[in-house]
Amino acid sequence: MQSFYKLTKDMEVKLHALLAEMQELKNKARELEEENTRLRQELANAYREKGIIGAGSEETGGMDTGFLNLLGLYNQGFHICNLHFGRRLMEDCLFCMAFFRKGNEPAVGRIKSEI
Amino acid sequence: MNFISSKEDLLSAVQIVQRAVSHKSPLPILSGIKFCAENDLLIVTATDLEIGIQCSVQAEIFEVGSVVLPAKYITEFFRRLPDVPIFIKSDPLTGNVSVKYGHSETNINGFLAQEFPELPLPVSEVKFSVPEDILKEAIRQVVFAVAVEESRPVFTGVLLEINGGEMQMAATDTHRLAWRKLKFDDSNNIDINIIIPGKTLNELSKVIGRPEKEVDITVTDNQVLFSVEDLCIISRLISGKFPPYRQVIPQGRVSRIRLITRELAEAVERAALFTTAGSSFIKLLLQNNILVVSVSTEVGRVYEEIPVYQEGEPMQVAVNTRYLSEALKVLGSGEINIEFAGPLNPLVLKPVEGNDYLSLLLPVRIREE
Q1: Interface test with B, best of A101, A105, A111 (most B CBs within 10 A)
Q2: Mean of all residue pLDDT scores within chain B
Q3: How far is A55 from chain B (nearest CA, A)?
C-alpha cells in the first residue's frame, strides 16, 4: 500500500511538472503570437509608408510603388488585406481583391493570371 | 426519478439533443444526455458548453428527479426498444437507471445529474420572431459559405444584422460570400449585430421548417436562444467584428448572363466528376449567348454548351467546382443571373426574381496547359 501511495505521489509530482512545462509552452506561444502580430503590423506600416512616399509614373500606369509592392506581395502568394496581412494565401481572397479594386481598378489586371 | 413514456417520444428527444453532445470534451459528463422529470414533463438536455439543446416531451411522472445517461448507448438503445410503454427509474444515489419494457428490464450505469452543467435560459429585452420556413431557407442560403478552419472564429459564423426594419445575414470564408435580406417586423425597434456559430444555425435548420410556426429568438451580450414549441437551442455568440463584407461586392460589371439554374448545376456536377484533388476547378467560357462548361484532366474531358441570354463582353473564368455547385444548390430560383466583373473579380450569382439574395465566388487563377 505504501508503494502504491508512493507511486501516486510520484505521478502527482510528474503531472505538476508536466503542467508547469505546458504553462511555459503556452506562455512561449503567446509571446510568439504577439511578436508575429507586431511584425505583421510593422510590415503593414512599412508598406503603407512606401505607398505614401512612392509616386505614380507613366511606366507603372499611374500606380504608386507602394501599391505595386503590394501587388508583388500578392502575386508571391501573401495576403495584403487588413484581415490576414502577410499570411500565406491558400486560395485567392475576396478582401485582397476588394483592396485592389478600391485602390486602383487597373491593378486587378496586373494580378498574375495564367488562364 | 421515475416516469413512463413512449419509445417514440424518448427517441425523438434524444435524437434532437444528441447533436449538442460533446465528443471531444475532457469532461465525461458532457458525453451524456440529461433526463430531468418534473411537472408532467421530461426535459432532455445535452451541451458541449458552446451549444446546448433542450427538448421537452410529455411523460407520466411518478417521482421527480434527474440523471445523465451516456449518449453513445442511449440513442441506439431507445431506437431498438419495442413499441410498448417504457418505465424508467433512477437511483438518486448512484445514477444507475433501470429501463423496463414489457417483461424485460435493462440497467444502465449513468452519472449523477449534479455534475451536469446548468443551462439557464438567457433573459433579455432583445426578442423577436421569424417564421420557421423563412428562417430555415435563409440559413440554408448563407451557412454553406462559413469557414471550416477556426484560425479566425468570425469566419466560422454567420453575421445577423437587424436595423432599420431589415434583417440581413452574411457569411464568408474569404473565398466566397453569401448574403440574404429578410423582411422583418420591426415593431420593437431592434438594432443588433451578432455573429452566430455556423454549427448552431446548421443544427437549428434541421429542427425547424413548419410554415405556420415561428422561431422566437432572444439575444444577450454573449448568447442567443432559439425557441420553438418544446425545443430550445442556446448558443454562445462569436465575439469579434465581422469584416466589412459589403466592400467585396463588385459595383460594376463587364457582362451578365441569364440561364436556367438546373442546366448549369447539372453540367457542373457532371464536370465535377472529372476534376481531381490537384485541379478542382472548371472553366466557364462565355461568348455568343453560349456558356461553355469544360474541364480537362488526366481522368477525361468534359465540354458542355448551355444557351444563355448574354449582355456585355465575352468572358473566360475558372472556378472552384465545389464552391459553384454549393452556391447553385441553395439559390432557390429556377433562373439565375451571373454577373462578371472581369476574369479575376468575383462572380455575382443572383436569383432572377427579387433582390434579396446574392452569393459571390472568386475565380481561380490557373496555369494554362
Answers
A1: A101
A2: 91
A3: 26
pLDDT digits (tens, 9 = 90+) for B254-305: 999 999 999 999 999 999 998 887 778 999 999 999 999 999 888 889 999 9
B177 contact residues in A (CB cutoff 8 A): 94
- pTM value is 0.82
Q: Please give the average per-residue pLDDT across B38-44, as a whole number.
A: 91
Contact B243 A95 (CB under 8 A): yes
- CATH of span B2-115: 3.10.150.10
Q: Which long-range contacts (CB under 8 A, 24 or more apart) does B271-279 make?
A: B271/B295, B271/B302, B271/B304, B271/B321, B272/B321, B272/B322, B272/B325, B273/B299, B274/B299, B274/B300, B274/B301, B274/B302, B275/B321, B279/B366
Q: Which CATH number applies to B127-246?
A: 3.10.150.10
Superfamily name with CATH number, domain B250-364: DNA Polymerase III, subunit A, domain 2 (3.10.150.10)
Give yes or no for residue B313 having a pLDDT over 50: yes
- Where do the domains of chain B lie? 2-115, 127-246, 250-364
